[in-house]
Amino acid sequence: MRVPIMADVTSMGEITAIAARIGVELSQIDLDSIHLPPGEDCGIPSDDDDLMEEDPLEFDAGFGNILVVDNLPVVPKEKFEKLEGVVRKIYSQLGVIKEDGLWMPVDPETQKTLGYCFIEYNTPQEAELSKEKTHGYKLDRSHIFAVNMFDDIEKFLKVPDEWAPPEIKPYVPGENLQQWLTDEKARDQFVIRAGNDTEVLWNDARQLKPELVYKRSFWTESFVQWSPLGTYLATVHRQGAAIWGGATTFNRLMRYAHPQVKLIDFSPGERYLVTYSSHEPSNPRDTHRVVLNIFDVRTGKVMRDFKGSADEFAVGGTGGVTGVSWPVFRWSGGKEDKYFARIGKNVISVYETETFSLIDKKSIKVENVMDFSWSPADPILALFVPECGNQPARVSLVQIPSKEELRQKNLFSVSDCKMYWQSNGDYLAVKVDRYTKTKKSTYTGFELFRIKERDIPIEVLELDNKNDKIIAFAWEPKGHRFAVIHGDNPRPDISFYSVRSGTNTGRVSKLTTLKGKQANALYWSPGGRFLILAGLKGFNGQLEFFDVDELETMASAEHFMATDVEWDPTGRYVATSVTSVHEMENGFNIWSFNGKLLYRILKDHFFQYLWRPRPPSFLSKEKEEEIAKNLKRYSKKYEAEDQDVSLQLSEQDREKRKKLKEEWEAWINEWKRLHEEEKMEREKLRDGEASDEEEEYEAKEVEVEEIINVTEEIIPFEESQQ
Amino acid sequence: MRPILMKGHERPLTFLKYNRDGDLLFSCAKDHTPTVWFADNGERLGTYRGHNGAVWCCDVSRDSARLITGSADQSAKLWDVQTGTQLFTFNFDSPARSVDFSVGDKLAVITTDPFMGLPSAIHVKRISKDPSDQVGESVLTLKGPQGRINRAVWGPLNRTIISAGEDAVIRIWDVETGKILKESDKEVGHKKGITSLQKSVDGSHFITGSLDKSAKLWDIRTLTLIKNYTTERPVNAVTMSPLLNHVVLGGGQDASAVTTTDHRAGKFEAKFYDKILQQEIGGVKGHFGPINALAFNPDGKSFSSGGEDGYVRLHHFDHDYFNIKI
Fold it and tell me: Superkingdom of this entry's organism (chain A) (predicted)?
C-alpha cells in the first residue's frame, strides 16, 4: 500500500523541515518505494480504502429457490437415508442442490418422516425448472409428487376454507365487434403504421381517398396484427399483447400478460392466441430459453404454456427467429380450431384444444421428419421426410385424430421439398428439388395430390424445361389453377396450369406461358381469376395486372421501389406499399383490381399496411352462383349509387373550390388596397419615378432622327431638247 | 415546349434572376462567374469576372444598370451590367449568401454565413448612385438566428427585412430598430431548413421552399400562412408566375444520394401547382440533378431552371399552358 501524502495532513514545507531535521535528502527518496507492513496503516488513513472494500454479496431475500415436495412416502427411521438418496438423485439431475439444501422433517414422536421435504437450489430458475419437471412425477402408484414453490405456500394458506358462491353479474350485451362489415358503402378497412402513429382507415375508393376511423400514437411497441377473421386488432407491448375492437371505435377488449413477448399468432378461428418470447440465458453458453403461452382469446385465460430451450423448438424447418421457425404451433384448418401441432426431433406433436394435451397422450413418431403442413380445410397433415440411408425420401398424408396414413409417395435423390396447399384443401402441390445424376445441380418437378378424389391420385408435373429454377409458385384461391415463375433472372417466364380444364378433367394441362416478364412474385386476387405479376426489390416495383380467364394483361404499371403487395379481402382493390426498408418513397398506392391507380399516400417511416380480413361469406354456393348469373340486375342499384356519389363529389368539390377562390380574392383585394396606400411613399423612395408599371406602363413611340452624314453633289443640269 | 439548354457554367447552378424588362437573365453558379444571357434565345451575352469562390446569389437594379452578387469568397460585388466592370467590393469575414436591392435601389441587404465561430448576420449597405461615392460601411447589422440565413429580402417600403434559413423560422425585422417584429409559428411553419424565398411581383406575399418537402405562401405584412404545397422531395427552389396563379417548386434528393439511387427516384422535376387550390398541375422534367434555382420571366411567358447538373434550361410556354384548367 502506498503512503499517501495529503496536503491537509502534512504540508510540503513541514515535510522538508522534518527531512532536514532527521538528515534525509528528500530528492533521493522514491516515495513510491515505501511500503508499510501489511495490515498496518500507522494511523494514516488511506484515500483508496473504499476501493479495497469488496461489494457485499447480494443475498436473495426471498425463498424463490426453495421447493416443497409433497406426497413423499412416509418412512421409518431405517429407510430415511434410502428415501433421501432417491429424492436427492431425482432433484440433483435438474439443478445444483445447495449444501444441506435437502431437508426432510421427521416426526419427533414416531421418528417417521412426514411425507414431505424441502429442497433448496442455488437459483430460483433451477427451482422453477424442477417444479415444472417433477410436479406430478409418479414415484410409484400411490405417491405422485406435488411440488410447489416455498414462496407460494403463503398464497395457498390464504385460500378461504369456506366455499363462497361466485357473484353472478348481470349480463351486459357486448358491442357488435363485426360492425365494420355492415358499412353502407361496403368499404373495407385497413391499418397502417407510420412513425409513431397507427391508423385504421376506410378505403373510400369512390372518393379516391381514405377516411380515418381511429388513430393513436404509440399504440403498439413493435407491430400490429389483425385476427384472421378481422374481429380484433392485436398490439404488442413489453408486458404482453392486447386486442382491440368495437362497433365504432377501438377499445381494448383483452390483455394477455407475457413479458417480453416477441411474436403472436392467432388460431384460424381466432379462438386462441399463441404468444412467444425468447430470453437471454444467464449462462452465455446455454441456448436461449423460449416461452410460449396459448391464451383463450375471449377469456384471456392461459390454456397451456410451453417452456424450454430454443433448441427444443428449433428442429425442422429453416430460418426464423433465433432458429425457431414461426409459427411454432401450426393450427389445423377450419373454424373449429381443434388441433394444433409442432415439429420436434423425430416427432410431430399434435395437440387437441379440448384438453390441450397430446392426442392419445403420444406424439407421432416420424424418423427425421423435416417439415409438415396442415390442409387449410381438413384435419390432414402433410409430412416431408428426407432421404436417410437406404430409405427414400417421402411425402405422406396423415389423417388426424386417427393418425392413419392416407397416402404416401416415395421420392428419390431429393434435395428439398416444399408443400403448397390450395386454399380449399382440394389439392396439394409438392415442389421437389432433385439432384441430377452428377449430384452437382438440382432440377425441379411437382407432385400434385388430388385430396378430394378417391384414393388421392398423384400426378407428376415437370416444366417444359426442367432445368428452370422456380422463383415463385401460387395456387389460385378457391380455384383449380396455379401460376409458376420459372427460369433465370432478370427475365423469367411465367406459366399457368390448370388441374381441371374443360375437356381434360383428370390431368394437369398448361394454359399458357408468358415469356420474359420482369416479375419475381405472384399475387392472386382472393376471388381468383385476377393475378398481379409483381417485380419487387430488384425489379423496382413493376406490376402487371393479368386476367387468367382471358389470358390477357389488363394493365402494366409501376410503383417505384414497392416492397409489398396486398389484395383487399374482396379482391376489388390492391394496395402496394413501400415500407421503411427504403428511405425514399415511403407510402402506399391503392389500385383497382384492373390496374387503375386510384390514389397515392406518402408517409415517412412507413412500416405496415394490412387490410382488415373479412370472415367467410354466409351465402351458400348456389346463392353465390345465382348472384353471379343475375349480376346485372343486382348491380343496377349500385350503379345508381355510384352516380349519385360522383355527382355529390363534384358538387362538394365545386363548393370547396369556390370557397378557396373567394378567400384568395379577399387577400388580393387587401393587397391591392395596401399597395395603393403605399404608392406615394414608394414613388418617393424611387426619387419620384411614377413607377408601378402595372398601372403606369405606357408604350410611347419615340422618333429619333440622326444625321449620319451630309454630302453635296453637283448634278449637271441639262435641258432636254424638245 | 422545347427547352433551350444553356451550357455556360461548369459547376452547379445556385441562383437565377431576370431583370425587370425580362430581356436579360442573370445566372449564378459555384464556378465563380456570374453570367448574363438573352432571356429570349438563351444566347450568352457576357460574364462578370472577379469573384474567387462560388457565387450564391445576385440581384439587378430596376434600371438594369447595376448588378450585385454575393459569393463564398467572403465578398459581395457591385457590377456595371453593361460593361461587366467591377464597381465596388464589400468585404466580409464570412461567405455572403444572399443579396437583395431595396425599393429605389438605394439600399442592399446582404446576409453572411456562420463561419469560423462568427455567427450568421444580415448587413444593410447604402448603395450610392455614383460608384465613386460608394462606401463599405454597414448602415445596420442584424444578428441572432442560429445557423445559416439562406435568404433575406426587403419588406414593403423598405421598412422591414424578411429572413429565412436553416433554423426553419421566418423572421420579420424592423429596419429602424433592428428588432424582430414577427416570427413564423412553429406549429404551422416549416419543419426543416428553408432553402429559398421569393416575393410576389407587387411584394405583398412571398413563398418559401423547405427541405421538409413543402412550400408555403405567406402574407408579407402579417406573416400569416396562406397556402401550403406539399411534394415528395426536399424543395430547393420556388417561384411564382407573375401572370397566372401558378407556383413552381424545384428540388430533388440530396445531391450526395443521387449516385446511389435510380434516376427515376430523384424526381428532378420542376413541379407546377395551382396557387389557390394547392393542387399539382404538372411537371417539367429534364434536369439530371436536383434543381437549385428557378425564375419566372416577368412577362410570365417563360421560365428558367438551374440544376446541380450545371445546366440552365429556358422554357418558353406552349400556347396550351395558358389554357390549363383544373
Answer: Eukaryota
